[in-house]
Amino acid sequence: MHAIVYHGPGRKAWEEVPKPMLQADTDAIVKVDTVTICGTDLHILKGDVAAVTDGRILGHEAVGTVEQVGSGVKNVKVGDHVLVSCITACGACRYCRDGSYGQCIGGGGWILGHKIDGTQAEYVRVPFADTSTYAVPAGVTDEEVLMLADIGPTGYEVGVLNGRVRPGDVVAVVGAGPVGLSAIMGAKLFSPAHVVAIDLADARLEAAKQFGADITVNPSREDAVDIVRGLTDGLGADVAIEAVGVAATFEQCATLVRPGGTVANVGVHGGPATLHLEDLWIKNVTITTGLVDTYSTPTLLRLLATHQVDLARFVTHRFALGDFMQAYDTFADAAQTRALKVVLTA
Length: 346
Ligand code: NAD
Ligand code: ZN
Fold this sequence. Notes:
Blueprint: E1 2-6, E2 12-16, E3 28-36, H1 39-46, E4 62-69, E5 81-84, H2 94-97, E6 123-126, H3 129-132, E7 133-135, H4 142-146, H5 151-161, E8 170-174, H6 178-188, E9 194-198, H7 202-210, E10 215-217, H8 224-231, E11 237-242, H9 247-256, E12 257-265, H10 277-280, E13 286-289, H11 297-305, E14 315-320, H12 324-332, H13 334-337, E15 341-345
Parallel strand pairs: 8-9, 8-11, 9-10, 11-12, 12-13, 14-15
Antiparallel strand pairs: 1-2, 3-4, 3-6, 3-15, 4-5, 5-7
Helix pairs in contact: 5-6
Zinc ion binds near residues 38, 40, 60, 86 and 150.
Cofactor: Zn(2+)
GO molecular function, one term: oxidoreductase activity
Protein name: Alcohol dehydrogenase
């Protein structure tokens, strides 16, 4: 079969590799029908994620058809059409029993396309298939469901739910990439007073409007803190969601938040940020952060199946599976191509 194989920083290829085989009785082999590329894959290709080594097949998002299951798999059968989640869950460890699947210590967590071979391939081995795959609901497309492999639950859980968005809140979302857009969409479910999207790219701000942002701010031209304070009697945002992953935007969120509010960090940071505890303690600011757990995937699948969220809007570009290298170029050059999510179909 063919797969996208990582060969060290800046190097990847769509190349011939052995087809995966069952390794444990809880595994499934899934034929990949639809697959996408995540911003985190670009971090990996820069060499930011040390655990990914030469020869690793990338990818942690897919929708596919189950081709083979181990003897211990109970809930998934050959022929099932499933979402392969970015988080693999053993289902039995202390963390999984708490719903903290991202922290699984039973052999799961974020392993696909990271510690084991991933989904950017014709076939993928999915460990703990019973707890790491989800049936595709009737009446929705593979592309829509694919948006719930990672970006949907990430924006919703790590941004909106960790941030404890409530009706009437003013929510500032810094970074309007696919993850920030998911947070905007998720925040709207809670009837906020205003969602303010903040991004340096005007194309991303246009997308933010389509995803429900009430106000968009480009900090290269306008002062986001002034605008948010203007909406909140000078107080600041109830919730500030960081969806970029650089120190400056984390620090901006700490300035945007009101006393008693929450900063929810979603971005993957490659280095430290300054935490002004001398200001934050007296403002009673709550700071949350985390790797997505995907405990919200069943909820999001229901919201999708009942048309309460529109995930089709994420898909800006479509490719055949064999055109993976071109798809990477399109995704990596989002400023020119205006790509949000690129989708490849077998
Ligand atoms: P992305 O790169 O597509 O989007 C980031 C956006 O931030 C872009 O639109 C960019 O224009 C904007 N931006 C950059 N610098 C800015 C600045 N100084 N001020 C305002 N906007 C700025 O990324 P994405 O795929 O949407 O992911 C966002 C972050 O979430 C990444 O760091 C990614 O690795 C992370 N992530 C976290 C998890 C998790 O489990 N916590 C899961 C998936 C992704
Ligand atoms: Zn991802």
